[in-house]
Amino acid sequence: MLRTRSLSFAYDAQQEFRFPDMQLDAGEKLLILGDSGIGKTTLLHLIAGLLRPRSGSVELQGTVLQDLSVQELDRFRGRHIGLVFQRPHFVQALSARENLELVQYLAGRPRDRQRIEAVAESLGIGNKLRERPHTISQGEQQRVAIALAVINHPQLILADEPTASLDDKNCEKVAALLEDQAAATGAQLIIITHDQRLKERFTNTLTL
């Protein structure tokens, strides 16, 4: 279960964000909508533990993120939270397979080639594992990014504007891939976006 309480964050004295409380059970999905500058990405970073709130708390699977040290939080995030950023983050010198192995290593998990191959095949990139990210298409890069997010069986998948630069056809594909991957492991899925095209796919929505 994910639960947030009384979250707020300030970048400076003039700009403070306050967010509504949320509760999400295993397997549930949530679409968070809002215009640019309203604090959507800030909220995602708070939920992921990438930012520490000015006030309030984030609890996932009974663990309050604010109670963890930096090192503990990094390990917890690697094991329990999958992140899909608007612009994929890769180590460009490594192949797609090596990027996935690195994510397993950073989470303190043993290298699991069978898991890597199974996830890659489910996302249609099984034949791209030897390639470096900059040599494959944008759509394939996005699928590798989703693979990075789900490789460690996370309880929570967070996606930041995953369809922002996509046409309607690819928007549907990416949304379906995220939903399928979350359903396969019973993970909670939160998509944060201003893309109104995704509304019809979600019964649970929050507008900031």
What does this structure look like?
By secondary structure, this protein is α/β, with parallel strands linked by helices. It has one domain: Rossmann fold, CATH 3.40.50.300. It contains six helices and ten strands, in the order E-E-E-E-H-E-E-H-E-H-H-H-E-H-E-E. The strands form two sheets. Strands 1, 2, 3, 5 and 6 form a five-stranded antiparallel beta sheet that branches. Strand 1 and strand 2 form a beta hairpin. Helix 5 runs parallel beside helix 6. The radius of gyration is 17 Å and the shape is globular. The two termini are 21 Å apart. The model has no long low-confidence stretch (mean pLDDT 90).
Outline the low-pLDDT stretches.
none
- Class in CATH? Alpha Beta
Helix content: 25-40%
Instruction: Round the mean pLDDT to the nearest integer and report it.
Output: 90
Can you say what the CATH homologous superfamily is?
P-loop containing nucleotide triphosphate hydrolases
Helix run count: 6
Distance between the termini: 21 Å
Structural class: alpha/beta
CATH topology-level fold name: Rossmann fold
Secondary-structure element string: EEEEHEEHEHHHEHEE
Give Rg in angstroms: 17 Å
Give a quick set of tags describing it:
Rossmann fold; five-stranded parallel sheet; single chain; 208 residues; 35% helix
